[in-house]
Amino acid sequence: MTKVTIVYYSNFKGATEQLALAIGRGAESVPDTDVQLVKVEDVDDHWQRLHDSDAIIFGSPTYIGSVAAKFKEFVEKLAGDVWLRRMWLNKIASGFTVSAGRSGDKLNVLQQMVIFASQMSMIWVPIRITGGNYSTQGSEEDLNRMAGYIGLMAQANIDEPADKAPPPSDIKTAEMHGHHVANVARQYAHGRRELPSDYDTLNDEKTGETPATLADLMSG
Ligand SMILES: Cc1cc2nc3c(=O)[nH]c(=O)nc-3n(C[C@H](O)[C@H](O)[C@H](O)COP(=O)(O)O)c2cc1C
Fold first, then answer.
1. What is the 60 CA–ligand 1 centroid distance (Å)?
2. Ligand 1 contact, 156 CB (< 6 A)
3. Whose C-alpha lies nearest to ligand 1, atom 4?
4. Cα(4) to centroid of ligand 1, in Å?
5. Which of 59, 98, 132, 190 is the most exposed place for a label (fewest CB within 10 A)?
6. Could you list the mean pLDDT of each consecutive 10-residue stretch along the chain, which spans 220 residues?
7. What pLDDT, in 10s, does the model give residues 2-12?
8. Is 103 touching ligand 1 by the criterion CB < 6 Å?
9. What is the CA(138)–ligand 1 centre distance, in A?
10. 205 with 214: CB under 8 angstroms?
11. Is residue 11 exposed (0-12), middle (13-18) or buried (19+ Cβ within 10 Å)?
12. How far is Cα 158 from Cα 179, in angstroms, rounded to an integer?
């Protein structure tokens, strides 16, 4: 089985959660794929799952042009064992965000996620769907209507509930992105197991406990 874990934060309207669910559905449609959603608030109960995952997909709403503070709190827990021991080396990574504005400065959130993943030596998967809604022939129903590529960008009107916003086009785009990431993870994981490298941490002993933080490690 290929393990795909979606680790996300969603608070204001539940919009990010709708995307996480859609990405999960898409990932599950790839054969032999085991999908789990983990809220950042619950991450301390799920470290082993993350260490065992072939792919980790990050999700955060855009809050003041950035990942949400709670999401960053989760990321900072990686500074320590996960970072120092390269525990997530060569895991597949991707990310998604949603904001009320068409731009809303979502790009910054996805760029932050690319940096988080890069600091862990993960392999980032961008969007495969050609951007939509870019001409007089386009519409809000187009797939990838935000026309971003670095990761999944969605938009949710601030006065609509989560079952309406993000709209069906964004939800469908999220499903397709989940399928794509799981597919890449499946292909990569098979090759990685078949052709291991001597620096790979794939088979290192892992701990399901909360990984040591940088402060823990520095104080011995
Ligand atoms: C604290 C806060 C900051 C926000 N900052 C932005 C922003 O910078 N740009 C934007 O377009 N929308 C912003 N929004 C709107 C949210 O991005 C939008 O409502 C999103 O769908 C919320 O996702 P969630 O329901 O998963 O929390 C903000 C909302 C909150 C609560």
1. 10
2. yes
3. 63
4. 26
5. 190
6. 98 98 98 98 97 98 98 97 94 98 98 98 98 96 98 98 97 98 98 90 68 87
7. 999 999 999 99
8. no
9. 26
10. no
11. middle
12. 28
What is the Cα–Cα distance from 36 to 99, expressed in whole angstroms? 24
Whether 182 is in the pocket of ligand 1, judged by its Cβ within 6 Å, is no
What pLDDT score does 202 carry?
Answer: 65
59 Cβ inside 6 Å of ligand 1: no
Its pTM stands at: 0.97
**Rounded CA separation 3/76 (Å):** 23
- What are the residue ranges spanned by the domains of the chain? 2-218
Instruction: Report the alpha-carbon distance of residue 4 to residue 125 in Å, rounded.
Output: 13
> Tokens representing 86?
């390269």
Specify whether domain 2-218 bears CATH 3.40.50.150: no
What residues have CB less than 8 Å from 95, skipping those under 6 apart? Answer: 57, 58, 59, 60, 109, 110, 113, 114, 117, 151, 152
CA distances from 128 to 2, 132, 149, 180, 214 (A): 20, 12, 7, 8, 36
- 107 C-alpha to center of ligand 1: Å? 14
Give, using CA atoms, the residue closest to atom 29 of ligand 1: 63
